[in-house]
Amino acid sequence: MPDEPEDRSLTRLYQRHRHELLAFLTRRVRCRETASDLLQDAFIRLMHSERSEVGNLRAFLYRIANNLSIDHARRNQVRGVNDAQALEELVTETTPERSAVASNTLAHLERLIDGLPSPTREVFLLARVEQMSYKDIAARLGLEPRAVERHLNKALSHCAAAALQARHQTEPS
């Protein structure tokens, strides 16, 4: 049964479906703050779409939300693979030259980590050394899980960039 004309207003759609869509997205991305951001993006996309051509706006909203959650997962997977891959490549090289470079790089990374702002450094150490979950780190540091994710991504990006820079400096031209 198609939505009635008065149900096509964005305000009414938002009020009617936001809670269920937020719950759906939270289950998909496992972070309420990220889900909230994706929910806003879903309604922005709906706002810019041709709603008059859509038969079932609720189903269309779910499709948009699902696609946004898939895009989010892909971005995080690619970002994590690139950062982890750069660090893994540095660690797996075993030649004497690479061992010396790795020692120097490790010292450089320690200085880099020590130079990170306090919340970012603490999040990085708790996640990578203590292997704590985002939720546990958030509780310990009084942060939102989304903030933990941002701090960890920032730290990993800085470490990966430093590792790549060190690798490029040691490779023959």
UniProtKB/TrEMBL annotation:
Transmembrane segments: none annotated. Coiled coil: none annotated. Residues 109-159 form the RNA polymerase sigma factor 70 region 4 type domain. Keywords: Sigma factor, Transcription, Transcription regulation. Pfam families: Sigma70_r2, Sigma70_r4_2. InterPro entries: RNA_pol_sigma-70-like, RNA_pol_sigma-70_dom, RNA_pol_sigma70_r2, RNA_pol_sigma70_r4_t2, RNA_pol_sigma_r2, RNA_pol_sigma_r3/r4-like, WH-like_DNA-bd_sf. Residues 13-77 form the RNA polymerase sigma-70 region domain. SUPFAM superfamilies: Sigma2 domain of RNA polymerase sigma factors, Sigma3 and sigma4 domains of RNA polymerase sigma factors. NCBIfam families: sigma70-ECF. Belongs to the sigma-70 factor family. ECF subfamily. This is Sigma-70 family RNA polymerase sigma factor. It comes from Pseudomonas fontis.
